[in-house]
Structures are given as C-alpha cells and as structure tokens.
Amino acid sequence: MGEVKVLGASLSLFCCRIEWALKHKGITYEYIEEDLRNKSTLLLKSNPVHKKIPVLLHGDKPVAESHIILEYIDETWRENPLMPDDPFEKAMVRFWAKYVDEKCVISAWTASRTKGQEQEKAIESTQESLKLLNKLIEGKAFFGGETMGFLDLVVGSLPNWIKFIEEFVGIKLFDTNELSFLHEWAQRLAEIPMIKESIPMKEDLLNYMRAQQNAK
After folding, report:
1. Which end of the chain is more exposed for a tag (fewer CB within 10 A), N or C?
2. How far apart are alpha carbons 132 and 130 in whole angstroms?
3. What gap in Å lies between CA 102 and CA 87, rounded to an integer?
C-alpha cells in the first residue's frame, strides 16, 4: 500500500499519537526526526500550508494535522480500529479530541507563557478542562471503553506534559486527588508496552528545555 514515513519530533505530544496509532495497527514505518529550528525541505514540501509536524507520508501522499492523520490511519488500515462504528459515538470522540487540543493544551500552554491575572485565568481554565476529562473517564478503563481508542491517543502524553509545565514554570495544574480517575488512566495507559517505550516523560521534557536555555 506504499511506504509509510512520519515526520515528527520525539518529544511532541502531537507526534507520539501518530507513532502509537501505527504501532497499534502493526504498520511498519520510517520515523524522521525534524529539527524545528531548521525545518527540512521534505517537511516544507509536505506541509506547505502550516509547515508543522506531524506529517504522515503514505507513498507520495502527505497528510498533516494529528487528528486528520489518526483518522486517515484508522480508515486506511481497518484492523484494530481506533474509532467506534456508531456515528454518534464517533462524533463524540471527535468533539472531545478537539476539546483536548483547543482547550486543555492551549490553556496549559498559556499558563506557562503568561504572568499575573492572565496566568491565573489560564490555570483555572486548565484545571476546569481537566476536571471534565476526569469525569469523562470515570468508571472506564480507557476513553475508548475496555480497549485503547482514538481519544486515548489524543489525550496520550498530556498528563506528563502538564507535569513538565508545573515543574518548569512553578505552577499547579494537575491535582492527582481531584483528578484521580484521569491520573489512574494515565498510569494504566503508560503500562502498555508500545506507549511505555516512547511516551515523552517529564524528565525528558525538562532536560530538553534546559538544554535549549543553555544553548542560547
């Protein structure tokens, strides 16, 4: 069906989703690490609109944006499905996946980049958004039910990424007591071998950021 390549960055919470999906499907692929400060010609050619990672190359067909890539993978290789069959359930997965990136991720990122009242609002927004995810996972092994699914891959490394922000910036976003169901889910997910071997850990992210600061 064509050679498969992934253009990404190993510490990106958006890129690891793609690798996990391919491994879940049993698809052999080549991973190409991008230097985001010196983007390759291949990346710029493959994603000329946004010029961002991740990008999936399937033969001569480039696919960009992590949610779109995940759906492309799921529809191209039907084994071990990530999406439910029911149209309503599928719509709900898409809704929450979008919520994770547009609310949880952006709020946490804003909290890490601002100060004062703006930061306080971003912290509150992050905490409230995580509470909704905590309620969503309550009583379930995975967001996908009894097995890992699309939304599990999207939420994926978010808890580790938030823990990194907490330590790097010195703020509190993830209360494991208040978010006990989400915390337990994150631990459960991290024990899956294919997740465990490549999930970006807080220490990896901290070491990367410190190295970037020292290089300036």
Report:
1. C
2. 5
3. 22
- DSSP class of residue 216 equals -
User: Residue 153 has which token pair?
Assistant: 């891959």
Q: Enter the pTM of the model.
A: 0.94
In whole angstroms, give the CA distance from residue 116 to residue 127. Answer: 17
Contact (CB, 8 A) for 198 and 20: yes
Whether omega before 54 lies within 30 degrees of 0, making that bond cis, reads: yes
**How many Å from the N-terminal Cα to the C-terminal Cα in the chain?**
44
Residue-wise pLDDT for 10-37, tens only, equals: 899 999 999 999 999 999 999 999 998 8
- Residues 28 and 145: their CA atoms lie apart, in Å, by 26
- Residues of the chain with pLDDT below 50 are 216
3-state secondary structure of 64: strand
Main-chain phi, psi angles of 6, to 5 degrees: -125, 125
Cβ within 8 Å of residue 13, ≥6 positions away = 105, 156, 157, 158, 161, 200
Type of residue found at 6: V
Q: How far is CA 19 from CA 108, 110, 127, in A?
A: 24, 27, 28
Q: Which residues touch 170 (CB under 8 Å, ≥6 apart)?
A: none
Q: How many other CB atoms are found less than 10 A from the CB of residue 184? A: 15
- List Cβ neighbours of 125 (8 Å cut-off, separation of 6 or more): 103, 107, 110, 111
Three-class secondary structure of residue 39 per DSSP: coil
Task: Give the H or E element holding residue 8.
Answer: strand 4-8
The answer to whether the CB of 22 falls within 8 A of the CB of 73 is yes
